[in-house]
Design goal:
The chain contains 8 helices and 4 strands. The protein is α+β, with helices and mostly antiparallel strands and 185 residues long. It folds into 2 domains: 103 residues, N-terminal domain of the delta subunit of the F1F0-ATP synthase (Peroxidase, domain 1, Orthogonal Bundle), CATH 1.10.520.20; 72 residues, Glutaredoxin, CATH 3.40.30. Strands 2-1-3-4 form a 4-stranded mixed sheet, sandwiched between helices. A hairpin with a 2-residue loop joins strand 3 and strand 4. Helix 2 packs across helix 3 and helix 2 crosses helix 6.
């Protein structure tokens, strides 16, 4: 079964990769990462800003102006500002968050870092997050970073994704397997 890549993912990969190559050439990857970490934090903390970026009611220029005003005191690197203007010209500002994620993913791969996505039914405590991180570091190596997400639909348990591999210990998955087994009986 062939995997389908959405056009949004393809756009994010292309822009993220192009920006990474340019930042690497100009030796400012860490500056761009710092800018993107600030963007990501502010956007995730402010649901209205997320809606503004995705809104079809605002044109790309308006979105760019809003972003530049919000981050005017953040000492943005020149390449970050230029990149935002390129996104504006190409009507891709709404893809900013996914491009940031792609840029960070490329950076992690180039540095030999391993990123794992951990999904749980409820918010995990810091102690639980540290236990999971320590267990995964033992099998995956020390250069491990984790992204934690909450999805109430999995009912309980965890889903851990590392690259193309997935460990699904969710209750929803176990219920589905039980349904399939019962159909076959």
């Amino acid at each position: 079964m062939a995997t389908k890549i959405s056009s949004g993912d393809l756009i994010s990969e292309r822009y993220g990769s192009a920006l990474y190559d340019l930042a690497s050439e100009k030796k400012c990857i860490d500056n761009i990462l710092d800018n993107f970490n600030v963007f990501e934090r502010v956007i995730k903390e402010n649901s209205e800003l997320t809606h503004v970026l995705k809104s079809p009611l605002l044109n790309s220029d308006e979105k760019l102006n809003i972003i530049l005003k919000i981050f005017s005191n953040s000492n943005l690197h020149n390449l970050t500002i230029t990149f935002l203007k390129v996104l504006d010209n190409n009507k891709r500002i709404s893809n900013l968050l996914s491009i940031i994620l792609q840029f960070k993913k490329i950076n992690s791969e180039k540095r030999g870092d391993i990123t794992a996505d951990v999904t749980s039914a409820n918010e995990l405590s810091e102690e639980e997050k540290n236990n999971i991180k320590n267990q995964l570091k033992g099998s995956l190596g020390q250069k491990l970073s984790l992204n934690f997400d909450v999805d109430k639909n999995i009912i309980g348990g965890l889903i851990v994704k590392v690259g193309s591999k997935m460990i699904d210990t969710s209750i929803a998955n176990k219920i589905n397997k039980l349904k399939i087994a019962m159909k076959g009986a």
